[in-house]
Amino acid sequence: MIALRLDEIADLCPGRLERAAWADEVTGVQIDSRRVAEGDLFVAVGGGGDFAKHAFARGAAAVLLPEDAFASLGALGGAVRARSSAQVVGITGSTGKTSTRDILAAIVGPHARTIAAERNFNNELGVPLTLCRLEPDTEVCIVELGMRGFGQIRALCEVARPTIGVITNIAPVHLELLGSLEGVARAKAELLAELPAGASAVVPSEAPELEPFLQRADLHYTRFGTGGDVRLCSFERLNGNAKVEVEIFGERLELTFAFGARYQARNALAALGAYRALRLPLAGASAGASALRLTSWRGEELPLPGGGVLLNDCYNANPLSMQAALGDLAERAAGRRRVA
């Protein structure tokens, strides 16, 4: 992490800051005392103050007991982000955020020093924690932006300050908070509104609800999907992997990804759109594709006795993701017995 001095942290974060006698700066931020390494700042969220001694025992430089944990973490993440020259890719959407993040990190990693969000670190806690992993030489940071209502993505963008935005799709998710598909599109489009002039926005080609929010003339739009700038030409499943041929602004590219589900190919299109926006060599995108490791519970394939396969896609259960998972099951079964 780009180091922050303790005096600056005290100014940024109202609350009580307990310092180790030897420390004058921190080189990491954690909210789980079990993950604390020497030199870290442990931010006590909720009842985390009970674990202050444990954090110091693990080598924490300081423990912060904040008045407002979300605001303090946002201030810390924003301070580190302000010191970084990295390109920050913000990814949101109704489904596919985490897998798109994983795919993008895999294909960017061989070409640029990359930090990507862990697990489902996509909220007021996770986004600042991701930013607090930025190093002085980090070139690309990939953040995932979740939301539970209007204004949340805007608030996360104020901290992360993305320079490239990706919207994976618009689907009937969180309708109890957003009311309609138009509301979902409006909430997701907060990412586009927060991008700086001249930035790139990667958006789905088949999302009519999003179109009213794609009016900024100072953004460069890349559309992925059917009829888009980045589109799928062919998909072939090979021994648990996928051989994918895509066309990116007229250029054909063949990649072998370490996933087997056809729906992941659409997430790969979004990731390739962001990859191009980063101005990385298209021919080099295949270098990391086969090394991809998707986050747990997203289309995991587990062998069963007798030659069966368990498809574990249980992380998300909104209508669109369930439809995709069941479609993948039916396609793979190819007439064999299947249970869902």
What does this structure look like?
- By secondary structure, this protein is of the alpha/beta class.
- It folds into 3 domains: about 5-70, Udp-n-acetylmuramoylalanyl-d-glutamate--2,6- Diaminopimelate Ligase, Chain: A, domain 1; about 85-290, Mur-like, catalytic domain (UDP-N-acetylmuramoyl-L-alanine:D-glutamate ligase); about 300-335, no CATH class.
- About 30% of the residues lie in helices and about 25% in strands.
- It has 12 helices and 17 strands.
- The chain has helices spanning about 5-10, 50-55, 70-80, 95-110, 125-130, 150-160, 175-180, 180-190, 190-195, 265-275, 285-290, 320-335, and strands at about 5, 15-20, 25, 30, 40-45, 60-65, 85-90, 115, 140-145, 165, 200-205, 220-225, 230-240, 240-250, 250-255, 300-305, 310.
- The strands form 5 sheets. Strands 8-9-7-10-11-12 form a 6-stranded parallel beta sheet, with helices on both faces.
- A hairpin with a 5-residue loop joins strand 16 (about 300-305) and strand 17 (about 310).
- The chain is globular.
- The model has no long low-confidence stretch (mean pLDDT about 95).
